[in-house]
Amino acid sequence: MNHQDEIKNNNKITTEAETTDKIEIKFENKNGLNNQKQEVKIDNMSDQDKNKNGLGEKWPEPIVRVQSLAESNLTTFPDRYIKPPSQRPQITTINHQPEAAAINIPIIDLESLFSGNKDVKERMSEACRKFGFFQVINHEVRPELMDAAREAWKSFFNLPVEAKEVYSNSPLTYEGYGSRLGVEKGAILDWNDYYFLHFLPLLLKDHNKWPSLPSNIREVMDEYGKELVKLGERLMRILSSNLGLKEEQLQEAFGGQDVGACMRINYYPKCPRPELALGLSPHSDPGGITILLPDDQVVGLQVRHSDTWITVNPLPHAFIVNLGDQIQILSNSIYKSSEHRVIVNSQKERVSLAFFYNPKSDIPIQPLQQLVTSNNPPLYPPMTFDQYRLFIRTQGPRGKSYVESLISPR
């Protein structure tokens, strides 16, 4: 039985959208180990409500930086990072690196696609329907900018710990320097540190919450963010057209130009027991489109395809694109948001930059009317992105359990 099957068998997750600014999340565990009932007012949530629902200014336990653990010459591996046997990666190694699978996710040449190549358009459509993942090349983002962004964050994570702690985050916004997702006390944690920051809407963009070191990081990330917003818009037009919709229709469903954009920079330190741990547990992304700049020297991303975990072979200066749950919902499951995870390495650290292109937070997202028929009724109830992403912010990554719990019975 795989991790996803265990979730389906052991847990029942239901939602009840009572108003446009309230959602009730019920998470029931048949073993009686995790009975919870949460009612969260999203838009006008008071500080008292945020604290009551685990979204306050403090994490449930003292934060331990994974990088500090990795650099402490551990004599035993901490139990808090040991995954249950069914969730542990099956890692084979060649020269101390995880072996990349012969199968890879589809590779899409955007320049060829925009030149009218029908074969490339069909390949991308098939990738969205079967994988939910693909790599893009010739995407018009300068290789020098991609390299500069990655190197700037490597420099940040190599700073002394006290320089980074200035930017420590909280469960309330996740913005800043962090080391865990979810607020469940005693949860098994992932082997990574990260930095989360906002680009859009502009009212959330605050350079004071961005690192000031290295000295070029704010300037580089400003330019990088603008370029990836443009790329997100281009990808949305292609996705929409491939569904048989007007090019602008998915973008309009996201809020037009009033969309959200944020980034999580993931730092995966060397791990002394990579066969016991994960850098990031299985999950599907809750948002719209994720544009990932991977470390093309150290593999780590794995995508679930059928019953197999595919280790992605990143191409130099390519982006890995994956569709999030909001695209699956809008497409009425024609497009797929795939479960993925990250494995870690005993010999090399790894840095990746995940850029999230998301809907406006307070717009109800539901299957587009043109994709609903009598034979293909709407599978999902309306729900805002604010309401939706609350699940991962409280529960942490849990496969595809949440989006699957919302599917209406046929």
From TrEMBL:
Keyword list, A-Z: Dioxygenase, Iron, Jasmonic acid signaling pathway, Metal-binding, Oxidoreductase, Plant defense
Cofactors, names only: L-ascorbate; Fe(2+)
InterPro entries linked to this entry: DIOX_N, IPNS-like_FE2OG_OXY, IPNS-like_sf, Oxoglu/Fe-dep_dioxygenase_dom, Plant_2OG-oxidoreductases
Biased composition (Basic and acidic residues): 38-52
Catalysed reactions, semicolon-separated: jasmonate + 2-oxoglutarate + O2 = (1R,2R)-12-hydroxyjasmonate + succinate + CO2
Residue numbers spanned by region Disordered: 36-59
GO molecular function: dioxygenase activity; jasmonic acid hydrolase; metal ion binding
Domain of life from the UniProt record: Eukaryota
Gene Ontology biological process: defense response; negative regulation of defense response to insect; regulation of defense response to fungus; regulation of jasmonic acid mediated signaling pathway
Name by which UniProt lists this protein: Fe2OG dioxygenase domain-containing protein
Source organism of this protein record: Eutrema salsugineum (Saltwater cress)
Classification of source organism: Eukaryota, Viridiplantae, Streptophyta, Embryophyta, Tracheophyta
